Design the sequence.
């Protein structure tokens, strides 16, 4: 740690350090930030931008950038801020880490911070005619300012790029998303194959895709702002409604983050149950992904097969949690109730059935000539691109990035389990599909080991002693878990002012799908327009997780 | 009068009172025998082959997919032909939160549907805004934008709840006045009267 500090201090003498939190914090003046970012990436190997958290500290606006060194898995974070509230400007790092492109657009949308050098400074989630920036603490949320408008929204083609001149003066250079002579078609937002309400504007040359402009925000519900008005136990409910196919993992992540801040030790049995629920959810999610990918290519029978097996997992959830979806099962300190007496037998049965059926899936679909023609070599994403765009989860591992949080930053009890991280090197749609299929085998392996442990180990304590009023100490925390679609992160900053019920000052969810949607343009370019559907299905994002 | 549908018995419904009242109101002035018989025929046809227009925005859409899959199999009741074009659908099944950005799209799609058309609001979000009611950009129930026939509460509703809602819609269709009132064009003086 000291070594890194010295190296950074040599690169940027103005940087200040703070080691009181869980990770090393570097405070950098905005003017030096871009140069430091280049050095951090090229000399110190911080090639992976994990999260960008926009912040309003009342006196200033700014961002935390969480960085990871993909070789050593060392993490640190950088704080950049500006005191100008009227026209806040920061330097963009989207040319250093490409993932920052969409991340900074999100910050612009929420806080109104414009980034100098960003190629495309438009809103990301809210309507073009929206007034104000909702996550600012002084935002006026009244209905008069932003009423429900039933007029159609105009396409925003005018982009703005802020450029800093030699004299330090910042000017706006206007640009166009699409040129006048481009042939642009609209896909979505209400389209069965976009897997939710995602909208693409696709520029075509014949049947070839030349450019995809992602228009998101059709299911943006303002979860991060809503959390700021709720107590910590209340915020748990939203985690299950973002990526509903990783409901358990997302909730697990927020629980872990709050437990980390409070220093609560979770009983072993509770952690084991949580881990099993996570893996069941992963199985369920990958089966759904299989069903949708096959249906998008016209194989409706395969869709029925996938859903048939998912019902087994739904039954397990139903018995123990009392709900098929949005289970609300995990809680701060453990789980709300012990498992159903049939739980272990049911899990074993489901594992056996799914394992047997996976072979059938391969016979039915994987070897199919149509499936192979449409997936092999289509939608290529190289290892460098995947790292640059911070792609995690099955899609990242299909491009050869070893990024499984269960292995890299072991949480829960994963370090006691024997399983392999599935990686492939092809980086095409087929590889992404195959990684999911192979991960299901690994999940079954984990579940079987967990069943044995749950049976053999004594103790029936499923929840730790938790204070009735949850109050976090001053500070901020970041926690990651491996959700079904990649690394899901939660950022919490505690507010010490509100009493007696403490609320988060800021809660940010770093969703894996947000990064995944960043590569749609990259992977679909120079493919046929029909492949747009299979590529996005193989990348497999859940739209409410992008929009939050 | 008892409203009969093929899928579920009358006494199994929990809220028969409202449909009895509805029938009473509709039949208050008596019905022409020819129009009445034609109504019955057409309503029998519509109620047994309802084609949904899936408007799934979030979690409820996954449960709707389960409805279409093997275990719940909504094809048994004639709901299976899920359409993706508003022109070909009978009813719009709104599953999930509607945000301010989505609201004009929903309204436009509703307007594009051909008459007779029905709306089912599925899940807490579509009914009232649900857990996102306090958000700055969520519509507090789709009935602010379009008229709703059946509300299905739940977060998300279980497939059984979806079926219950769909069968309620079947019952409502069974008693509608297809020729009698619903689809009749208003005469000019009536229009003026209604406007007052």
Sequence:
């Amino acid at each position: 740690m000291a070594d890194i500090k010295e190296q950074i201090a040599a690169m940027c003498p103005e940087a200040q350090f703070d080691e009181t939190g869980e990770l090393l914090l570097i405070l950098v003046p905005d003017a030096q930030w871009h140069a430091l970012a280049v050095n951090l990436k090229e000399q110190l190997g911080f090639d992976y931008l994990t999260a960008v958290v926009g912040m309003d500290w009342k006196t200033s606006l700014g961002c935390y950038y969480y960085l990871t060194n993909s070789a050593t898995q060392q993490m640190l974070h950088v704080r950049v801020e500006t005191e100008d509230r009227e026209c806040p400007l920061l330097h963009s790092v989207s040319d250093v880490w490409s993932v920052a492109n969409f991340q900074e657009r999100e910050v612009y949308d929420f806080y109104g911070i414009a980034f100098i050098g960003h190629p495309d400074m438009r809103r990301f989630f809210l309507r073009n005619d929206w007034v104000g920036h909702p996550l600012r603490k002084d935002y006026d949320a009244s209905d008069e300012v932003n009423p429900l408008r039933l007029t159609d929204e105009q396409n925003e083609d005018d982009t703005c790029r802020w450029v800093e001149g030699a004299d330090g003066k910042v000017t706006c250079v206007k640009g166009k998303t699409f040129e006048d002579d481009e042939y642009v078609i609209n896909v979505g937002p209400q389209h069965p194959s976009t897997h939710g309400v995602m909208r693409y504007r696709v520029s075509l040359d014949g049947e070839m895709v030349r450019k995809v402009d992602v228009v998101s925000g059709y299911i943006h519900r303002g979860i991060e702002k809503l959390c700021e008005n709720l107590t910590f136990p209340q915020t748990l409910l939203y985690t299950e409604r973002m990526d509903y196919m990783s409901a358990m993992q997302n909730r697990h992540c927020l629980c872990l983050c709050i437990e980390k801040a409070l220093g609560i030790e979770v009983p072993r049995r509770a952690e084991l149950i949580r881990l099993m629920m996570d893996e069941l959810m992963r199985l369920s999610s990958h089966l759904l992904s299989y069903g949708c990918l096959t249906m998008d290519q016209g194989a409706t029978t395969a869709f029925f097969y996938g859903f048939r097996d998912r019902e087994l997992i739904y039954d397990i959830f139903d018995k123990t949690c009392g709900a098929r979806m949005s289970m609300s099962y995990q809680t701060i300190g453990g789980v709300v109730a012990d498992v159903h007496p049939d739980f272990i037998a049911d899990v074993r049965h489901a594992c056996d059935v799914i394992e047997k059926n996976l072979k059938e899936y391969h016979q039915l679909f994987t070897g199919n000539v149509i499936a192979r023609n449409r997936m092999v070599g289509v939608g290529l994403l190289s290892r460098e691109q995947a790292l640059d765009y911070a792609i995690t989860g099955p899609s990242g591992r299909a491009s050869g990035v070893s990024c499984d949080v269960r292995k890299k930053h072991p949480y829960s009890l994963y370090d006691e389990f024997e399983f392999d991280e599935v990686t492939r090197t092809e980086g095409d749609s087929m590889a992404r599909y195959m990684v999911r299929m192979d991960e299901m085998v690994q999940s079954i392996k984990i579940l079987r080991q967990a069943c044995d442990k749950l049976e053999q180990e004594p103790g029936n304590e499923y929840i730790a002693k938790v204070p009735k009023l949850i109050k976090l100490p001053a500070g901020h925390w970041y926690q990651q878990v491996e959700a079904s679609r990649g690394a899901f992160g939660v950022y919490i900053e505690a507010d010490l002012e509100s009493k007696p019920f403490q609320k988060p000052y800021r809660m940010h969810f770093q969703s894996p799908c947000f990064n995944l949607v960043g590569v749609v343009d990259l992977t679909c370019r120079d493919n046929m327009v029909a492949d747009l559907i299979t590529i996005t299905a193989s990348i497999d994002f859940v739209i409410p997780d992008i929009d939050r | 009068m008892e409203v009969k549908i093929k899928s579920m018995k009358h006494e199994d419904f929990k809220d028969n009172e409202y449909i009895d009242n509805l029938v009473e109101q509709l039949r208050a002035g008596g019905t022409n025998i020819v129009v009445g018989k034609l109504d019955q025929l057409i309503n029998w046809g519509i109620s047994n082959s309802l084609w949904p227009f899936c408007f799934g925005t979030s979690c409820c859409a996954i449960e709707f997919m389960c409805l279409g899959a093997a275990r719940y199999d909504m094809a048994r009741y004639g709901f299976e032909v899920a359409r993706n074009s508003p022109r070909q659908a009978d009813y719009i099944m709104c599953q999930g939160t509607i945000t301010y950005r989505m609201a004009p799209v929903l309204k436009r799609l509703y307007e594009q549907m051909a008459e007779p058309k029905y709306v089912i609001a599925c899940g807490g979000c579509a009914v009232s805004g649900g857990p996102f009611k306090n958000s700055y950009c969520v519509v507090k129930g789709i009935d602010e934008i379009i008229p709703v026939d059946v509300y299905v509460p739940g977060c998300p509703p279980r497939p059984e709840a979806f079926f219950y809602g769909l069968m309620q819609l079947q019952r409502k269709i069974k008693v509608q006045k297809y020729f009698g009132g619903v689809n009749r064009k208003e005469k000019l003086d009536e229009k003026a009267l209604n406007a007052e």
